[in-house]
Amino acid sequence: MNKTRRPSPGRPATRPGSTGPSRSRPGTGTRARTRPVPTGRTSPPDRRDPRRPGDRRIPGLARERHPQDWFALRLLLTLSGQKPVHWMLGHTVGAAYDQLMALAPGLPLRGPVRPRIVECRGSEPVPDVLEAHAVIAYGPARRALAFRLERGADDRWRCAAVEVGPRPAPD
């Protein structure tokens, strides 16, 4: 059984090993801070803790800088079955959604190996239009993905057309 040390009547409470009475804030019953509060960085320099402020990136900045990369990833996730086709509903315009509905079930991008984007590039033939291509690798096979992005009146990019290259011929 643990016993707590209690001061005898008439004597101030002291901590074991201390020489004087404890310092408490008058009226609160809480102990006053006797050590200085550390300033500056208190965690290791490579620590990435989401609960602390850090060098946060501005949301949407990568999408604005390279929209073809952002769309290539979204299209890959949709065409490989990792995300449903309706996930792209707000990011398509015109016939692109119907093209995705037709392409997604028949593509061999599903399987034990997750597909990944090997390369993605885009060009701007006219203002507010991007034509892009991506190379998708799934295992040893590769497929081409071509898509067209158009910037709307609300300054958001939307996919207007999607095409997937033919299945590579077997060796």
Describe the protein's architecture and organization.
By secondary structure, the protein is an alpha+beta fold. The chain has a domain at 63-164: Nuclear Transport Factor 2, Chain: A. 15% of the residues lie in helices and 23% in strands. The protein has helices spanning 61-65, 67-79, 96-103; strands at residues 116-126, 129-138, 141-151, 157-164. A four-stranded antiparallel beta sheet has the order 1-2-3-4. Strand 1 and strand 2 (129-138) form a beta hairpin. Residues 44-63 have a biased composition (Basic and acidic residues).
User: How would you sum up the global shape?
Assistant: elongated
Based on the coordinates given, report the CATH architecture of the domain at 63-164: Roll
Low confidence ranges:
none
Q: Give the radius of gyration.
A: 31 Å
Structural class: alpha+beta
Strand content: 15-25%
Helix content: 10-25%
Biased composition (Basic and acidic residues): 44-63
Biased composition (Low complexity): 25-43
Region (Disordered): 1-63
InterPro entries: DUF6459
